[in-house]
Specification:
It is built from 11 helices and no strands. The protein is mainly alpha-helical. It has one domain: MetI-like (MetI-like fold). The longest helix is centred in the last third of the chain and has 37 residues. The chain starts with a helix and ends with a helix.
Length: 253
Amino acid sequence: MDLRLFFGDAPALAAILGREPVWDGLFSACAGTVVLVVLASLMAIPAGIGGGIALSQYLHGPWGRALGFSANALAGVPSIVMGLFGFSLIIFLRHTVAPESNTCLLLSAVCIALLVLPYTVNATAQALESLPEDLRLLGPSLGMTSWQSLRRILLPAASPGMLGGVVLSMGRAAEDTAVILLTGVVATGGLPRGLFEKFEALPFTIYYLAGQYQSRADLNKGFGAALTLLGLTVLLYGCARALQTGMERNWRR
């Protein structure tokens, strides 16, 4: 692989700075994938961690069972169903309060966030519930409130397990195709210019080129996109593993 795979005939620096569009390279798809993952993570991770904390620490009656059931039910929703939900939402908005609504980057990010939310909820809840009982009693024995104990003792101890759910969520957000297929991705859209614009993404590029390639160059581009997505995923998991190891080492100290 060389720079032409990512930037085509456009100068690399000009393409990175957004001064020149890239129509025959993977740079726009890489940028769209990164932006999509970041947006979905910003929505799903805080909500998922909060939901997991509530599920394991505060909600133990009917509300806790309802939250647990909702998270498990959402985890079982197929990607294509979530994509149809997003597409149906746009149709509803076009016929009611927002006639100009259209599929876009923001809609894809919201649907992806809903799809990966259960991973963070369940990972956070399981990480907190797996802590030993003496660690749970440490905070109250020192006169801490429940919030102080959670923030200063339980969450740092459970953070390696919580990080696993976060990484799993981000990996799922990066590789899903069915959701974005119905909610805003296009084959040639350039760099994402705004939340309400169309965008490119590596999973859809692979899907599109696998069925629509016309030449050996298109096929090579598809394989390059697959290797790039695999590399991004491996890099994500490698960074997460290093961070997890560092957290565990610091906690043991």
